[in-house]
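Residues determine shape. We examine one folded chain.
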Amino acid sequence: MRHYTAAEVEAGLDYPRLIDALDDAFRRGGEPMPVRRAYEVGAEDAPGHLLTMPAWERGRRLGVKLVSVFPRNAERGLGAVSSLYVLFDGRTGVPRALVDGEALTNRRTAAASALASRYLSRPDSRTLLLVGTGHVAAHLPQAHRAVRPIERVLVWGRSPERARDLAATLSERGFDATPAADLPGALAQADIVSCATTSRAPIVLGRDLRPGTHLDLVGAFTAAMRETDDEAVARARVYVDTRAGALAEAGDLLQPAAAGAWSTDAIVGDLHDLASGARPGRGGGDEITLFKSVGAAIEDLVAAGLLADAG
């Protein structure tokens, strides 16, 4: 069994190839995968979650990801998410690979956002706003630049220092990146807004979204979490990674639906619909599009398989 470190995951999963592999997997579809199971496992002073995410392609490969999410880890200088992925042979059940799950999650999450952007953002999108300063947020600009001509990145976070640090890191990677102190002002400039936080209260407000914006919601992963308000969802043409996952876990959608401000029947499509052409993507240039990602186990399986197949 091969062990892939975080560095090997980063080197082995370039975004153009990974995005195309996800596009192909979602286009082909297949049998529905189980919605991930989440368990509350933290202490009173350290809230935490344990998630299990299995997926398989019969006769080819199967795998499972074990994830822990501890939102207050930033106070300890640690990432909020830790995980491992185990890939098995689909014919024998023999383990093939043990993969650093955090690196795998960062890459496939950013790639799924970029895949949605391929269908939902304006082709001329050049300014990306990052809302959040964590590990996933740091991967999003490179992924989005694989499908859109991103020239400028604005970074907003609750901690101005962390926003400055991430902007500096992105500048070293060749982006024109600057921290943004004024979130509404940054939203007024953004073509694509990528949110990657663990927020339980709205951060991006619908009243601040300009026409033509693509809103990419990555962070909130339970029904109790959200990154946008009701108005943002109501103004947008809404898509999800998978319907089953979104209807079980996407607080950004479930909460406005519960409040009567929006209906889940208004979900236009998921990544399978977009990749297969079953449902249309972006319409007019002034349309606001929204992609809500809660994470799909098939994304991990595809990414781990791509890594292992390459040796």
Q: What stands out?
A: The CA atoms of residues 39 and 50 lie 5 Å apart. The mean pLDDT is 95. The domain at 2-104+298-309 is CATH 3.30.1780.10 (ornithine cyclodeaminase, domain 1).
